[in-house]
Amino acid sequence: DADVTQTPRNRITKTGKRIMLECSQTKGHDRMYWYRQDPGLGLRLIYYSFDVKDINKGEISDGYSVSRQAQAKFSLSLESAIPNQTALYFCATSESTLETQYFGPGTRLLVL
Amino acid sequence: RKEVEQDPGPFNVPEGATVAFNCTYSNSASQSFFWYRQDCRKEPKLLMSVYSSGNEDGRFTAQLNRASQYISLLIRDSKLSDSATYLCVVNMDNYGQNFVFGPGTRLSVLP
Prior knowledge:
The complex is a heterodimer of chains A (112) and B (111). Chain A is 0% helix and 56% strand. By secondary structure, chain A is mainly β. Chain A has strands at 4-7, 10-13, 19-25, 31-37, 44-51, 54-57, 64-70, 73-78, 87-94, 101-103, 107-111. In chain A, strands 2, 4, 5, 6, 9, 10 and 11 form a 7-stranded mixed β-sheet that branches. Chain A has a 4-stranded antiparallel β-sheet with strand order 1-3-8-7, with no helix packed on it. Chain B is mostly beta strands and 111 residues long. In chain B, 0% of the residues lie in helices and 54% in strands. Chain B is built from no helices and 11 strands. In chain B, the strands form 2 sheets. In chain B, strands 2, 4, 5, 9, 10 and 11 form a 6-stranded mixed β-sheet that branches. In chain B, a hairpin with a 7-residue loop joins strand 9 and strand 10 (99-101). Chain B is globular, with a radius of gyration of 14 Å. The chains are: A mainly beta (112), B mainly beta (111). Chains A and B meet through strand 4, strand 5 and strand 10 of A and strand 5 and strand 10 of B.
């Protein structure tokens, strides 16, 4: 079984809808992250969490919110989806801020 | 200036060739450095960490030059399976979360 899982893997939604992307990990890491990837751009950090009680905004948090329900679960919500949020979304975990990150398989989101 | 920049690519090389990628970063206080590999439509996966003394893993060699703020990745004896996008990743501080990803360099190894 994969260490980091994401659901759904693909999603099509309409402008204005609220959607949630979910991430679960079995690595026992405290640190979890949400990124988005757009063609020709590097991954950009949306939110990150160092533990259940610690949530921090990343580079591009506007239009997004997160919830850290447990050490193993970190959800990303788009409150009112817009077309420029169409992207590939990755969840990642790490053991510490200096260590490598482990990525989930990604969620491909299309906002019409 | 972007925080992490990479050769734009794409690099198209024949099997068996040696290819090198460069990456530059803007923050001289950066603490840790990585090369990730990303296959088309898949998640990034760690290829190797980059240490100050340089490190080698089989056909792959990574170098760090702190004075010039660049990182390199050398691939020897390229295989078809090396075709992917290579991402340079720099962690720019010790305290917060500041992993910065470069835009990637695409490599195609041709038969």
